[in-house]
Write a structure and sequence with these properties.
The complex is a heterodimer of chains A (about 80) and B (about 150). The N and C termini of chain A lie far apart (about 30 Å). Chain A has a five-stranded mixed sheet. The longest helix of chain A is centred in the middle third of the chain and has 9 residues, at about 25-35. In chain A, a hairpin with a 2-residue loop joins strand 3 (about 50-55) and strand 4. Chain A contains three helices and five strands. Chain A has one domain: Roll (Ubiquitin-like (UB roll)), CATH 3.10.20.30. Chain A is α+β, with helices and mostly antiparallel strands. With about 150 residues, chain B is of the alpha+beta class. Chain B has a single domain (about 1-145), classed as Alpha-Beta Complex (Aldehyde Oxidoreductase, domain 3). Chain B is built from four helices and eight strands. Chain B has helices at about 10-20, 55-70, 100-120, 140-145; strands at about 1-5, 30-35, 45-50, 75-80, 85, 90-100, 120-125, 130-135. A four-stranded mixed sheet of chain B has the order 1-4-6-2, sandwiched between helices. Chain B has a four-stranded antiparallel sheet with strand order 5-3-7-8, with no helix packed on it. In chain B, helix 2 (about 55-70) runs antiparallel to helix 3 (about 100-120). Classes of the chains: A alpha+beta (about 80), B alpha+beta (about 150). Chains A and B meet through loops of A and helix 2, helix 3 and strand 7 of B.
Amino acid sequence: MDVLYFAWVRERIGQPKDKIETEATTVRELVEELRTREERYAAAFADLDALRVAVNQELTDFDAPLEGAREVAFFPPMTGG
Amino acid sequence: MDIRVQEDAFDLGDEANAFAARQKGMGAVVTFTGIVRDLGDGDLQAMQIEHYPGMTEKAISKIAEEALSRWSLGDILVLHRHGILQAEDLIMMVATSSRHRVDAFRAAEFLMDYLKSRAPFWKKEVTPERAGWVEAKDEDEDALSRW
């Protein structure tokens, strides 16, 4: 699946996107997996309260299942308008 | 429903006039415009607006659909820019129409409250000293609870 990062999450990880093969069944499990990759991932995912997640371009929460997920995106709270 | 996410600048007068001209039997048009604010000391060099292509349009459409279901509206326009903007540039606008003004006012406020914290845009302010992401405000999140 494609994992996308926006705003400071993208900057902290140092790239906008990863292609990932995962056995994770929920967003939270995917985050745990990403955290173990490298220090920059651990830093970006240090505080989940500061992050929001979308699965297949729909805003959801960290307990959301990943079944059928083609695209998961992590980003800070939005500041539109 | 007219949803546009674009890098290009827009002309507020042209957009408002065109929107108003399209309305049939509507007695009210409300428009709101967001403008890049300077930080008070003329320090803002740029406002960078990042978004999530694909999701942005979907999220805005969903918010607009919700407004259409809640109020009696003729039409909705949402136009939001991304990319690099300067102080005093127009960032975005919404326009709503209705037979009587209350629906158009309420819907415009609803759209703005939701666009603030449910449409995937992120703002970064660049000054000579630093570049920093604008933090979401609790009051913006709280504003959603009144709907």
